[in-house]
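Morning!

This is the sequence you dropped in the shared folder:
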Amino acid sequence: MIIEFLLSLLVLCITATMCSFTSGGFVWSLIEPALLPGVILILCMMIFLSGYGKSFLLIFFPPRKIKNAELSELKKTEQALGFAFKSLSIICCFFMLVSSIYFYLNLEERQTLGPNLATLICSIYYLAFFGMIFITLKSKLRREIINYMNEDSEEETKSISLTKKEICLRIIKILFSVALIIVLYILIISMSTSNLTDVEPLSFIYMRDIPGLVYILIPTFLLLKISGNFKNFFVVLKIIIKNKKVSVSQKALFLNALITLRHLLILEGIMVTLGGFMGILCNLEDRSVLGINFTVACVPMIYALLINLILLPVESKISLLCDSE
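The structure's back. Tokens below.
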């Protein structure tokens, strides 16, 4: 899996560089000289103490080693990656909270605001960056495990024919549900927030962030391709449209693809948004565009959340189409 690891690292490094360039920041501002190696060293020690060290090292072996590995080894490596992500989350959140405390304690001392705020942002940035690598590799392993355990012959999926009336009712139901969700979101925002300016943050001017959408979709689908789930995702969409039944093994594969994509979208949204914030911090002199830059920096995360809302019903629909259910 060393190839998948290096490819994932390359995709995310290019994304981080391009995002920093677009937001007006500098990529080296995302590299904290003490925080980055410190997080990696603590994570390595946690993995070693957990007893997953040998299993975790399997991801750095060539593909032939993975193919010849026993099922128990693959499962242990998958568990090791899950443990690594949990540990990374705790480590990064700890440093984020500590830097937040120092940030507010030294609010009057301007020379300390920059380092404390950079540590705060970079802590979550590293969580998203390395978390996406772990999720990609774990999804790849999960796919291998499902295929390893699938000893049954592949059966053709059966489709349930729908009448025109049923299709129309489904479309109406979906459109009504989407419209109701949008109305509720607008109602909650209008009642729970206040705006004394003439500018609407959620207007089309700010929501049409093409670079943000590119940075959300392209790296995410590249990582999905690296994990081996790219094809499965589009097969899922085809099955949903044709309303086909799926087997238990197919359900596991399709859910693996959907869950991986959802998690990658969230983490990519966090990473791109924080990259935008770092760009804002590098250009604080021009206060006239500070609000606009802050608004645009939030848009990629909004895209990621909206796509997740779309994928959640698809995920539940696949579960309902399983033959065993």
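Headline: Residues 110-149 form the longest helix (40 residues).

More detail when I'm at my desk.
O.
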